[in-house]
Design goal:
Rossmann fold, four-stranded mixed sheet, elongated, DNA mismatch repair proteins mutS family domain-containing protein, P-loop_NTPase, mismatched DNA binding, ATP-binding, ATP-dependent DNA damage sensor activity
Length: about 450
């Protein structure tokens, strides 16, 4: 079993999709080889839920971040080697017959297949030599990558590859050597070549992720066993937001709920998405947008941020919200250790029902101390009620500072429950009432004031 996040959660956090604008997968899409991209896709699809495995992978990424090496191949040239090695070989007789036939056709009909085969074998020899050099240039001694280095060195030390270094730089091979090398590379040492290719794919991912971490100044989270039941992220921010403000979030068994309030545009949704993304990436062993993070592994992550209605099913927005909360409740009731993010519960119904539902649902969820929750709402009275009889909540808000009639947002998490009520001020600043009453000039003036801030 791996760490789980369902489709709704992945879409809320904009995690999957290398070709999708501003997705987290695209942020890390720096692999050079097709195999490396496929391997990274697999990591995004199946995060880990074992602390030792997470820390092992994370330590390799961190090692390459510090090493600062470049991937020793281009995608185009490695594609030649990758396609050649995967095209299959055959017995020595089959390989010899095929090469001789291609040679004959080259002479008799100026066919290009013999020349192409020769080029593929020479390219593969060149890239294997380049990987050999890379392996032997790495620092000796114990490191998170040392086991893989030793595996590669062992493969290159195989007597069947004793000819490899001598053929470095070859551009054209005579027929007998071509037959011999083609047979060894695609048949005689097929398993060894597959192993080396997989090592190169992994190296591609290590260097790609490490490069993103270095450029973005991301850090690496430390995974703790599940029973520690803690999560701390310092200087946490959204990885796709430039010049983002960092915040500190801490959850533990004795305080497993963060109750978040604040005005619209104060940054609540962005903070919650930042948190969810960091949790997901941390379970992948990937770097996170924070100055420091450590966490107990969880079973999964669920969010309710952008829950759509479903006209085909006849679901209103409110009913879709209810079904989403029901899904999460079933997972929590199944005794799973989860991270749950609820942004503006029950905003699709009237204020009285939203108050009652948010209060009862939040209080009921919070009783499961093995799960961590971040719950936001505009209904600040819910927080006042929860604070009176719940001792496992951290009440926080994102402030709005008024510069005259103009709101300014600090994006800095503050202890307590907001008292900000600037909705009507913003409406008045936009001149909506003036527009309705025919005063469009006043609206334009107010917009000019806001845009200058």
């Amino acid at each position: 079993m791996s760490f789980f996040a369902d489709k709704q959660t992945l879409e809320d956090l904009n995690i999957p999709g290398r070709h999708k604008n501003n997705s987290i997968a695209r942020l890390f899409d720096a692999a050079v080889t097709a195999g490396g991209r496929k391997l990274m896709d697999g990591m995004f699809q199946q995060p880990l839920n074992n602390a030792d495995e997470i820390n092992k992978r994370s330590s390799i990424f961190q090692y390459f971040t510090g090493l600062g090496v470049a991937f020793p191949f281009t995608g185009e040239e490695f594609g030649v080697m990758e396609n050649y090695l995967s095209s299959g070989g055959g017995s020595i007789i089959t390989v010899a017959a095929g090469a001789i036939s291609k040679k004959f056709l080259q002479v008799a009909a100026q066919d290009k297949d013999y020349e192409l085969l020769n080029a593929e074998v020479c390219t593969t020899i060149e890239l294997l030599n380049r990987f050999y050099n890379f392996v032997n240039q790495q620092p000796t001694g114990q490191s998170p990558y040392s086991d893989q280095l030793e595996q590669a060195k062992s493969t290159f030390a195989d007597p069947k590859l004793s000819w490899l270094l001598a053929e470095r730089g070859a551009k054209q091979l005579p027929l007998l050597k071509l037959i011999k090398y083609d047979y060894l590379l695609r048949t005689g040492m097929n398993l060894q070549m597959q192993a080396l290719t997989q090592m190169i794919f992994r190296l591609d991912v290590y260097i790609a992720v490490a490069g993103v971490a270095a450029r973005k100044s991301f850090s690496y989270a430390r995974a703790l066993p599940k029973d520690a039941n803690v999560l701390t992220a310092t200087g946490l921010y959204h990885p796709a937001v430039e010049n983002a403000v960092g915040n500190t979030l801490t959850l533990q068994q004795q305080c497993n709920v963060i109750f978040l309030t604040g005005a619209n545009m104060a940054g609540k949704s962005t903070l919650m998405k930042s948190f969810g993304i960091a949790v997901y990436l941390a379970h992948m062993g990937f770097p996170v947008a924070a100055s420091h993070m450590e966490f107990s592994v969880k079973d999964g992550l669920y969010s309710s941020i952008n829950v759509p209605d479903n006209l085909d099913m006849g679901y209103s927005h409110f009913y879709a919200e209810v079904l989403r909360v029901k899904t999460v409740a079933q997972q929590v009731a199944a005794d799973k250790d989860l991270v749950v993010i609820f942004d503006e519960l029950f905003k699709g119904t009237n204020v009285k029902d939203a108050y009652d539902a948010t209060l009862s649902i939040t209080e009921a969820f919070s009783e499961n101390r093995n799960c961590f929750f971040i719950i936001s709402t505009h209904i600040i009275e819910v927080g006042d009620s929860l604070r009176k009889h719940c001792n496992n909540f951290r009440f926080t808000y994102l402030p709005t500072v008024m510069d005259g009639l103009i709101p300014r947002y600090t994006y800095t998490l503050t202890e307590g429950i907001t008292t900000d009520r600037q909705g009507m001020i913003i409406i008045e600043n936009e001149g909506i009432l003036d527009i309705i009453r025919g005063g469009e000039t006043a609206s334009a003036t107010n917009k000019t004031i806001i845009n200058k801030q």
